[in-house]
Input
Amino acid sequence: MADRLLLGTRKGTIIFDRNRGNWEISTIGHPGTNVSFVARDPRDGTLWAGLDHGHWGTKLSRSRDNGKTWADAPQIKYPEDALLIEGYEGQDFAGQDSGTRKPIIVPAKLGKIWCIAFGNADQPGRIWVGTIPGGLFRSDDGGETWELNRPLWNHESRGGDLNAGAPTGKQQWFGGGAVIDGKSYAGIHSIAVDPRDGRRVVIGISCAGVLETTDDGRTWTGRNKGLKATFLPNPDAEWGHDPHFLEWCESNPQHVWQQNHCGVFYSADGARTWQEVSKPEQGVHFGFPVAVDAKDGRTAWLVPGIADDKRMAIGGGLFVARTQDGGRTWKQLRKGLPQDGAHDVVYRHSLDNSGDCVAFGSTTGNLYLSEDRGESWQVIGNNLPPIYSVRFTQPAPAKKSKPAKLKARARSASEGKTRKSGKAAKKTKPAKKTTPAKLKTRKPAKAAKKSKPASQSKPAKLKTRARSASEGKTRKPGKPAKKSKPANKPAKKPAKKKR
Amino acid sequence: MPTVELARHLYAFFPQLEGRKITVDAATAAEVVAAIEKIAPGFSFYICDERGSLRPHVNIFVGDDLIADRKRLSDKLTADSRVYILQALSGG
Output
């Protein structure tokens, strides 16, 4: 059972821990800052967060001591020659190419870090980051350096290589993610790495659709067969689809699900073909997130809302919809959820599951949890800031004693289960604790600092040691992190009061 | 040499700048940002985007005047300039 929830919220990173059966806030990071996504790298326990400072821009932040202290990571920046079509002459938004108007081509700039996903155990240091305006970035050295994936950036569906002087293809990506400085751009919100073969990655883009690579990002193929885009003149168009979130079954990634702007879609053949499984009469049509059972690819959860013109809970009553038969039938699960006057809206990264646990957070700052696969719910957080991301995870093992070999094995065992963007590996078993780690846990700050440069040349062993030493300090769930003074962020009041 | 004052919020990210008088050897606003980057690595990406343009919600004043060139920050300074790097208020 997962014992920890990582929340990205409008006012910081909030960590809930299960403490003797009760879920409580244990740690608050980035107080006051807009946190778009938080995930834990199951391979080394590093936490990664995408921040939006408003005035000061978008930043990537990481913690090597389980969320106690955070520091800016090497930043993701669009290279100088990364160009995008901002619109067309006589048109004031990034709409679709009519084929006749002259495109306005401008340099791309980082707008938002929207999702973070990790490579498999056999891809050490591999991290993927999806951004607005549509760039997919990859690191192969644990986040020390980042590279824009050019084959995707120069994809024909995005207009081809814009450095060629003029688009070589028809630009069919457009705004759908978020408005940045008055303009809207396409963004990558879903990245799924195949646990069986990390060279296969499927991504979701609002608005463009789904793309797949099977050769480690060298080539990308559209996977939008069967989707409907009812906001386009041709709903069956190859491009321009609006998947809101995409997730697959971790143990059988041929089963892929997406909550789309235009309904709920399921694929039993690895995203090659999609089938609409919406049931509007049961409220199953519009929404943002979807979660898929790790073992049974036919079981999925949604949190539906009223169609896009309202984006509210249906009839003021909040419910989770679950299918166990690949979307043929749905069950509305309402026990314990507010049924009167609820205005909760749940964004695409704010629903997650781990074993029998399902949790979701809403833009009205409520956090709900079920420990029986959605049958009944409890509210574990009220008065939180608007919630943008919810991910189950395990607190990192406190102490390490066994030789690295064993640890590595434990890690790769968890790998198979953690393919979703930062999703909990419920089966990960912390390495056995045998050595008293007291000495190490005394100086968490130092340990964190030491590991900061993370030079890739350092032997992995050393790094691991430094990290678990710093992680040792976080063994006390339930204890507010008030007193921790982040190295480069003076402690402030807990953000949740500063709405 | 020009002196620089920063929005208080920036000290949260760059505590090494807090409580010290910042004077820099700089002839333009861009050089001010570059000089501070040297003592506080990462600073320039807080003030400017990756293309070197001033972020939309950040202002730089030289004396009482807002800089004119938000794209390249080429506004000239004199030896006794006072430079202010502040959050831009946009409504409210």
